[in-house]
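Hey all, quick one. A colleague (J.T.) asked me to put the calcium ion job into the tracker so the inputs and the structure tokens live in one place instead of scattered across chat threads. No bug as far as I know, just bookkeeping. Sequence used:
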Amino acid sequence: MFQLLDRDPLRLVGFAAALLLVAGTGGAGRAEIKTVVDRKKAYHATPAFCLQNVPPPSAGDAAGKAVFTLVDGEADPHCGGLAKLSDGKLPRHDDDPAENFFFNAGTPGGRIAVDLGKLLRVKQVNTYSWHADARGPQVYKLFGSDGAAAGFNPGPKAGTDPRKCGWKLICAVDTRPAKGYLDGQYGASISDSGGVIGKYRYLLLDVSRTENDDAFGNTFYSEMDVIDAEAPPAPAPALPPPTVVKGPPKYEVSIDCSEMPELKQWAQNELGPTLTRWYPIIVAALPGEDYAAPEKVTVTIKKDPRILPGKRQGVAFTVGSHVVCSGPWLKANLEGEARGAVVHELAHVAQQIRGRHAPSWLIEGVADYIRWFQYEPKSHRPRPDPRRAKPTDGYRTTAAFLDYLSNKYDERIVARLNAAMRESDYSDALFKEYTGKEMEELWREYVATLR
Ligand SMILES: [Ca+2]
């Protein structure tokens, strides 16, 4: 975890992975503005905006009653408009233009004024954004005003320094990571060590694009919360019910964590949305003639880690459309492999292989291909050791081999091999049928690319 104290708010910089940023504006001994920034990579983000260091979005905060005005710049015709910043609703996924506000493509950003209706003791300002690409992070300056100064301009356009017309600079926010992709879900939370940021009726956001390598650098802003120090805590936006999360029509994934109540929040906010989003994708990736995947999947989280036959410890297993997971293992891996491991099991549900001729190395290879080469971020993809690995090692090694074959020979090869296993038609000769080469030759070719 990084922590940075910076006396000059204009020089705030973003961090790559662990994102706690603290910046000061005041002198020694005075209350200081704190800006905490957090990020979840796009693949791991869910509509609940579960960020570690930034509070979740709230419904019914002071921004909900405020009037938002576009002072300068041009809204993108595909966005949901300024109303999206304070409607208490969140995007459903990482590319949901209608649930975000963003400035038009090819423009440098702009300015948004917020009239809170009356002078408030502002305790916190939180902003949320989400996008699969460079439009994820936030870059803006926040100004505040009580509107009392002579010559106060409620809508200073770009080129006019707000500080010269009745505004005070509160802070500058830049959530961009220092390196790597900009994708993801971002939150910024501005508060003050003294309890309140200040007494303001007006706020002004001076928004910049995140990059200008192409036209698409304007952030997808999902929500802005303004917390009134005098108001009772506002409720969180409505989330799906605790243990059953309904996915797209037809498919339903139920999670039973009654044995591990401490995982209920995680199951509701993170695992549930991940599984309901991914199960239909996995089903579509593993089709078959006259085949329909199970429509209802159950995931049971057990308290006892000895879930395997003979009371052996394990991570998870699947029988038919029932997935059983070790609760203690999930709990120990919540920020790591927990969701990916359950995605692997969902692949087994969609595979539905009951025939006798299916080799376990290929069954596990297909499930891990779905997990590591479809679900997990590219940076996590496994790379087998060319000195030791064999195509029949299963899991990650076979998954990486299948990815090579998909890219080089036949993008449907995983679906075809899986369908053959499901129909009890599998033999190693299928590799030659689908690619023109024996499996051993294909493996030698693949290993040569690893050296
Ligand atoms: Ca919204």
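Adding what we noticed when we looked at it: The chain has a mean pLDDT of 88. The domain at 244-450 is CATH 1.10.390 (Neutral Protease; domain 2).
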